[in-house]
Amino acid sequence: MSEVGRPGQLRDFPGRGLVITLLRAVHLVGVVGLGAAVVGMRPAAESVGYVAALMGAGIAMAGLERWSYPAYFSQLNGLTVLLKVVLLAGAGMLAGFDAALFWAVLVGSVLVAHAPRGVRHRKLF
User: Fold this and answer.
1) Could you report the per-residue pLDDT of 83-92, keeping only the tens digit for each?
2) What is the model's pTM?
3) Secondary structure letter of residue 47 according to DSSP
């Protein structure tokens, strides 16, 4: 049997799937709330809570994935998560978050998340 950290090895705990599902729901609330501000349906100042939900739940999901599968950040899906965090945090610090970046991150996320397993779990290094 391989030890944790080796390819294919997964750490797990009872309820992990439920935790990921709940975090995903909070993350999507943040995405929709931020999206409403990006398209002008809500004042940007009212989006702080949505951004916190989006980033907090997203980082928590990535952390749990990394804990569960130590090779996570060497795969396409894990590297995509890191890129999203850098882009969103950078845009937030530069106060230059615009609709084009929002849609690019959203579409890129969907493409990677729904790519065939062999693509999204491909080890890049």
Assistant:
1) 988 888 777 6
2) 0.82
3) G
- For residue 123, the SS3 value is strand
What is d(CA 108, CA 19) in angstroms, rounded to the nearest whole number?
24
Q: Look up residue 98 and give its two tokens.
A: 């615009």
- In angstroms, the CA 89 to CA 31 distance is 14
Please, are residues 44 and 105 in contact by the beta-carbon 8 Å criterion? no
For 38-92, the pLDDT digits (tens) are 888 888 778 889 989 999 999 999 999 999 999 999 999 999 999 988 888 777 6
Contacts 24+ apart (CB under 8 A), 110-118: 112/76, 112/77, 112/80, 113/77, 115/76
Domain ranges of the chain: 16-120
Residue 110 CB neighbours (<10 A):
10
